[in-house]
C-alpha cells in the first residue's frame, strides 16, 4: 500500500533526468513519463506568469480526486516532484531530503554529466532507503 | 616557572611558530575538488589505466609531503626503520590526519610474503562516487594508493600499491582494499635486521 506513486526529477530545460515509480498506480512507460515531465515543466512556468500575486515561484501543490502532486523547485531551476495518494503528509520534507541526496550523490559524482539522465548507484540506494523509511513512518502511525 | 601562562607576542610574523593549523576541512568542498580532479584527468587520457596512473601520481605528491609534515609534527623527527613500524604509521597516523579515523584493518597477505593489505569499508574519497558500469574495475581509490606509495617511498620502503574493490557477502557495496607489495630489497633488509 504505497503512499507514493512516482517520483520525477526534471532539469532546468524541462528534460526528464530521473523517473521512478513505486507500485502499479503510478506506472508509465518511457514516452509517457517524458511527456509528463515536459507538460509539468510548461505548466509550472505558465503558473508563474498567471499568478495574481507578484513574486510567485510556481505551483507547489496540485490536488486532484485520485492523487496529489507536490513539487519542489531548487534555486537552479531543477524540479523534484512526487505524485502520491491524496492527503499524504510530509511530502515537502521528503522532497527536500531527496534534493539533499541529489546534491550529495549526483552532483559530487565526477562521472555525472550535468543535465543528463541520472545513473548513479549510490543515489538509487540512498533514495530507496529514504522512501522506505518514509513508508515505515507513515504506516506505523 | 617563568613565562608560564603568558602568550609570547611576536613582532615579526616569520618568527611565529608553525601552528598545527585547522584540523578540519569541509567534506563537501573536498568532494567537489576531488570530483574536478577526476574529471580534469578524464579529459586528458584515452583509457582507464592511464586515468588510474594519473590519480596515483597526484596521490604520490601528497604522500611525499604528508610524510615530511607528520615526521616533524607527530613523530619528533624519528625515522621508522622496521616494516611493521612504517605500516602501523600509515595505518594509524597518516589515516587519522588525512581521513579523521584510523583505517579499518591491516592484514598480512597469506599467499605472498611481501604483500600487506589495508582495508576500509568505504574510502573517504569514494563516499559520493558511483562508478558507471562501463568503467569496469576502475577505483578512484587509486589516489589513496598513490598517497600510501608516496609515504612508503619517502620513508625508504619502495613498494607497488594498488586499490581494489572486494565484494562482501550480504552488503551491497564492496569494501576497498589497498594492496601493498614491497620490493625485494625491503624484505632482504628486514630479514637482515632480524
UniProtKB/TrEMBL annotation, chain A:
<keyword id="KW-0931">ER-Golgi transport</keyword>
<keyword id="KW-0256">Endoplasmic reticulum</keyword>
<comment type="similarity">
    <text>Belongs to the TRAPP small subunits family. TRAPPC4 subfamily.</text>
</comment>
<protein>
    <recommendedName>
        <fullName>Trafficking protein particle complex subunit</fullName>
    </recommendedName>
</protein>
<dbReference type="GO" id="GO:0005783">
    <property type="term" value="C:endoplasmic reticulum"/>
</dbReference>
<comment type="subunit">
    <text>Part of the multisubunit transport protein particle (TRAPP) complex.</text>
</comment>
<dbReference type="GO" id="GO:0006888">
    <property type="term" value="P:endoplasmic reticulum to Golgi vesicle-mediated transport"/>
</dbReference>
<dbReference type="Pfam" id="PF04099">
    <property type="entry name" value="Sybindin"/>
</dbReference>
<dbReference type="InterPro" id="IPR007233">
    <property type="entry name" value="TRAPPC"/>
</dbReference>
<keyword id="KW-0333">Golgi apparatus</keyword>
<dbReference type="InterPro" id="IPR011012">
    <property type="entry name" value="Longin-like_dom_sf"/>
</dbReference>
<keyword id="KW-0813">Transport</keyword>
<dbReference type="GO" id="GO:0030008">
    <property type="term" value="C:TRAPP complex"/>
</dbReference>
<dbReference type="GO" id="GO:0005794">
    <property type="term" value="C:Golgi apparatus"/>
</dbReference>
Automatic annotation (TrEMBL), chain B:
<keyword id="KW-0813">Transport</keyword>
<dbReference type="GO" id="GO:0005783">
    <property type="term" value="C:endoplasmic reticulum"/>
</dbReference>
<dbReference type="GO" id="GO:0006888">
    <property type="term" value="P:endoplasmic reticulum to Golgi vesicle-mediated transport"/>
</dbReference>
<keyword id="KW-0333">Golgi apparatus</keyword>
<keyword id="KW-0931">ER-Golgi transport</keyword>
<dbReference type="GO" id="GO:1990072">
    <property type="term" value="C:TRAPPIII protein complex"/>
</dbReference>
<dbReference type="GO" id="GO:1990070">
    <property type="term" value="C:TRAPPI protein complex"/>
</dbReference>
<dbReference type="GO" id="GO:1990071">
    <property type="term" value="C:TRAPPII protein complex"/>
</dbReference>
<dbReference type="InterPro" id="IPR007194">
    <property type="entry name" value="TRAPP_component"/>
</dbReference>
<keyword id="KW-0256">Endoplasmic reticulum</keyword>
<dbReference type="InterPro" id="IPR024096">
    <property type="entry name" value="NO_sig/Golgi_transp_ligand-bd"/>
</dbReference>
<dbReference type="Pfam" id="PF04051">
    <property type="entry name" value="TRAPP"/>
</dbReference>
<comment type="subunit">
    <text>Part of the multisubunit TRAPP (transport protein particle) complex.</text>
</comment>
<comment type="similarity">
    <text>Belongs to the TRAPP small subunits family. BET3 subfamily.</text>
</comment>
<protein>
    <recommendedName>
        <fullName>Trafficking protein particle complex subunit</fullName>
    </recommendedName>
</protein>
<dbReference type="InterPro" id="IPR016696">
    <property type="entry name" value="TRAPP-I_su5"/>
</dbReference>
Amino acid at each position: 500500500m504505497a503512499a507514493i506513486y512516482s517520483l520525477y526529477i526534471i532539469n532546468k530545460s524541462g528534460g526528464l533526468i530521473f523517473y521512478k515509480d513505486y507500485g502499479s498506480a503510478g506506472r508509465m512507460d518511457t514516452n509517457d513519463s517524458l511527456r509528463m515531465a515536459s507538460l509539468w515543466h510548461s505548466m509550472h512556468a505558465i503558473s508563474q506568469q498567471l499568478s495574481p500575486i507578484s513574486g510567485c515561484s510556481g505551483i507547489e501543490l496540485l490536488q486532484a480526486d485520485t492523487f496529489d502532486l507536490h513539487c519542489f523547485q531548487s534555486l537552479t531551476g531543477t524540479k523534484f516532484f512526487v505524485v502520491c495518494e491524496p492527503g499524504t503528509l510530509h511530502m515537502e520534507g521528503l522532497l527536500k531530503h531527496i534534493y539533499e541526496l541529489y546534491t550529495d550523490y549526483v552532483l559530487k559524482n565526477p562521472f555525472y554529466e550535468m543535465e543528463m539522465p541520472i545513473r548513479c548507484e549510490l543515489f538509487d540506494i540512498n533514495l530507496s532507503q529514504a522512501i522506505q523509511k518514509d513508508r515505515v513512518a507513515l504506516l506505523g502511525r | 616557572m617563568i613565562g608560564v601562562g603568558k602568550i609570547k607576542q611576536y613582532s615579526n610574523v616569520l618568527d611565529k611558530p608553525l601552528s598545527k593549523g585547522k584540523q578540519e576541512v569541509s567534506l563537501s568542498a573536498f568532494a567537489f575538488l576531488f570530483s574536478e580532479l577526476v574529471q580534469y584527468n578524464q579529459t586528458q587520457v584515452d583509457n582507464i589505466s592511464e586515468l588510474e596512473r594519473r590519480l596515483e601520481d597526484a596521490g604520490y605528491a601528497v604522500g611525499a609531503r604528508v610524510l615530511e609534515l607528520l615526521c616533524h609534527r607527530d613523530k619528533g623527527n624519528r625515522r621508522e626503520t622496521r616494516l611493521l613500524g612504517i605500516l602501523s604509521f600509515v595505518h594509524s597516523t597518516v589515516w587519522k590526519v588525512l581521513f579523521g579515523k584510523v583505517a579499518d584493518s591491516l592484514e598480512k597477505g597469506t599467499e605472498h610474503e611481501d604483500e600487506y593489505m589495508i582495508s576500509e569499508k568505504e574510502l573517504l574519497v569514494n563516499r559520493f562516487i558511483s562508478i558507471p558500469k562501463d568503467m569496469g574495475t576502475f577505483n578512484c581509490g587509486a589516489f589513496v594508493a598513490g598517497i600510501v606509495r608516496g609515504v612508503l617511498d619517502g620513508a625508504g620502503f619502495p613498494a607497488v600499491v594498488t586499490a581494489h574493490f572486494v565484494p562482501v557477502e550480504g552488503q551491497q557495496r564492496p569494501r576497498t582494499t589497498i594492496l601493498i607489495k614491497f620490493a625485494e630489497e625491503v624484505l632482504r633488509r628486514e630479514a637482515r635486521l632480524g
